[in-house]
Queue: 2 jobs
Job 1
Amino acid sequence: MSDLPDLFPGFDSHYIPTDAGKIFVRTAGKGEPLVLLHGFPQTMACWHRVAPTLARSHKVVLIDLRGYGWSSAPEPEDEAHTTYSKRAMAEDVLKVMEHLGHVRFAIAGHDRGARVAYRLALDHPGRVTRLALLDIIPTATMWERMDASRAMQVYHWTFLAQPRPVPENLIRRSPTEWLEYTLASWTASKDLKAFAPGALAHYRAFFQDPARISACCEDYRAGATIDAEHDEADRRAGKTLICPTLILWGNAGIPAAGTQPIDIWRSTFAPDATGLGIDGGHFLAEENPAATLEALEEFF
């Protein structure tokens, strides 16, 4: 991947050891630490339009989640899918931040990265100072609201969660075409024009690796099982997020269909959340970076 464009000039690069192997990290800036976590089917490259500005006021830490980008892609260890549970991924974030010398930090997460972020904040409430969640609702709630319309919109939730290696084998026959269809279908414009050529190059490169395709599937298998179980257990226990929480969603994004995302969060894990809808689809930081950046800067 050394021939890929550098989307973060001036950022330092690190490989940080964790239980999952090496996690790839880029850092820049000074001030309060702020972690940025990407989603599926992307890498930290999704933040390239907002991270440099955030680094003017914060120590920005970009992380490729385990199985994604340049981070290690460990083989799944058990049938419970714990290897790619959001709880396990959150532990990677803690290890990275401790290695960098940060005990407490803020997080902004998009898509799967947002699921890692809120799981970390629920499991380790003293560690997260502020939390921004981009274009998601809680995992258990997604499954509970999976009617026919939602299932068509997010068919990948059930497809990728099918037993190994069914989705892996189907995707590997044409990984770039499947990736590009997926990216385009979640934008407001239903095409790839929102994505910079350099960012697309990173997404295509990572999605050529069969081990990473498998990791993505394991991510969704965990989402269909152990992640939802963790959500349900916390909800039964009355657990909520204690840090200030910002909910952002695309007005043409995935969660916007139906009940407003902020209302769902307020009724589940974030009773005091603030938030707003942003013009665009699912990929807020790339489709509408100006509005996304304004909301994040004001909150953090």
Job 2
Amino acid sequence: MALKLGELLIKERMITPEQLEEGLKNQVIYGIRLGSSLVEMGYVDADALAQLLSRKLAVPSVSKKDLAAIPKELIAAFPRSLVEQYRVIPFYLEGNRLWLAMADPTDLKALEEIAFITGHVVQPFIAPDVHISRALAKYYRISSGEMRYQMIADKHRPKDSVQSAETPTITMPGYTESGELLQMTIPVEFEGFASLPECDVDFDDNSYADGGRYTVDRLSLDFASAHSRDDVANVFITYLGQEFATGALLIVRGNSALGWRAVSSCEPIERFADFTILLSKPSVLRDVLESRAFVMGTLIATAENRQLLSTLKIRPETPLLVVPVIMLNKVVAILVVSAEMDSLSRRLVELQKLVRKASLAFEMLIIRNKILVT
């Protein structure tokens, strides 16, 4: 929108500058809209946000109830290509007038094309993007990066809470050059950035050196030139796939660890998103969650560990490195990689360096977004 949302919400006293800062970080890390980020974090009510934007843009808003009872005939008749391209939901048709729910009703290009293709007079209605996402999933089975495992209902952060002015950090264990175990803190922007896209990322011919390996120098250049979270994640997974036989990321939600993304020999593991392990039962994931420290080595033969190994296509005798991702003193994700034991120990420090570089790339993205919304 042309409207500077962050500035507007602060002016209306719906959020504090500190909450905007946190919302911007969440937005960049997860690749979602700022409004959805603030709603998800519990700082803004979705309906209140829609009503505010409705007043400011002079566009009517549509309720969650209206989007929950759309006629099947209307859904079937509306071109799916338009739904996917513009993230819109048709919810009422009267004669030749089509009522259309949109997160951005100022998108004139979308309105003109939809009117031309459907032959209807389009009346735009504003709706919170989180409601649009749910409707897309319900009626069109279209998933979205914004419909993640950690849903709004699970958020309990008070709306009037103000974050510390200090940069939040996560703690990640590592080794000194002498092999001594230590704890390292890095910016929290790493949390959630590893979307782990497929490994078919095309780098230019000069991306590789030293026998075809993706070098740290080239990696640094790619991080510095990243324009989105996906760019940062592509660099990360390319390096991870090079250094480890298998890599996986799980999300901790309630009493479960849920599969997010996984790669084996640089190929995505199918249906890993359907994988779930209960953290109430013995497993390496529960150990990492409770100890808040990494585990390295072969796994004890519990039912849950066997399930994890089977899903990741890892043999029981293969050593693993399982690392907790901690945000604001809470384990929010778990990273799993496999390799020979010597390689795991040797590559751990390199992985930590990669994480620090990625965090700096995210800080740059957050600064760019802050310029645009204030």
